[in-house]
Amino acid sequence: MIPIQILRVLSTIRRFDVPALLMGGQACVLYGAAEYSRDIDLAVLATDDALPRLTAALQSLQATVIAVPAFERHFLTRGHAVHFSVPATVDLGPVPPLRVDIMSHMRGVAPFETLWERRTTIALADPSSTEEILVDLLSLGDLVQAKKTQRDKDWPMLRRLVDASYASARDGELSDEQIDFRLTELRSPEFLQEAVVQFPGQAASSHPPAVIAARSDGDMAAALASEQATEMAADCAYWEPLRRELEALRHAARRSVAGDRTGSA
C-alpha cells in the first residue's frame, strides 16, 4: 500500500498539472516488485513552462530544499537530483517529513519527452475520499534502465522487477518487443534459460552475453555478473564529475554560513 503522505504528493502533482513520472522504490511497488521505501522519486520535465507548475505544487506542499544543489533548472538538466522535505499535515499526527527527490536527466535513460510518451498510468484508491488518484510512472523498461546504477541494492530490485513481469505473463501471448525485453533484461538464470527455450527464434538473434551463454550451456551467472559490473562502472564514471560539483557546492555553502556567523559576531 502506498502511504498517505506519498498519495498526497502525487495528487498535488497531478492537481497542478505537473509533467512528472514516479520512479524508484514506489514505482517498483506498483509494478509488483515490493520494496519498502519512505521516500518518493520523481522524473520531471525541466522546461520554462513546466517548472513554474512544479514550483507551485511544491509550495502548496510546503516543501523545502534540504541539501545542495538548489532548485534550479541548470542543475536538473545537468543530471543532478534536487532533494526536498515535505512536512506531514496536522491530521496525520506525529509522522516524520517525507523526502522527495526530483531529477530530469538520468544516465542511459531516454529524454523526458520520450519517457512521457511511453509512461504507464494507474489509478490508486484515495483512502480520504471515494475518488481515485491517477499516477503516471516510468514504463517498466525505463524503470529497469534507471535502476542500472552503481548501488548494490538496486540490482536485486531490478531482478525482481523483470522476474515479476515475466512470471505474470509467462503463459500469455507476448509481442516481439516484450520477448526481446525479457531476453535482454531477465537476470534470473532459470527464467532466462526458460525464455531462451520458449523463444528460440528471437534468442538466436539476441546477443546479450547471458543469452549467448544460455544458448551454449555457458555460465549465465558469470555473464550477468559481468554485465552488472560494466553498468556499475559506467554509472560511477557518469557521476564522478557531478559529485565533484556537489562537493564544491557544499564547500561554498559552508563558507557562506561561516561568513554569516563571523559577520554577526
Explain the overall architecture.
The chain is α+β, with helices and mostly antiparallel strands. The protein folds into 2 domains: 142 residues, Beta Polymerase, domain 2 (2-Layer Sandwich); 81 residues, no CATH class. The longest helix has 45 residues. The protein contains 12 helices and 7 strands. The protein is 53% helix and 13% strand. Helix 11 runs antiparallel to helix 12. Strand 6 and strand 7 form a beta hairpin. It starts with a helix and ends with a helix. The model has no long low-confidence stretch (mean pLDDT 91). Strands 1-2-5-4-3 form a 5-stranded mixed sheet. A two-stranded antiparallel ribbon has the order 6-7. It is globular, with a radius of gyration of 21 Å.
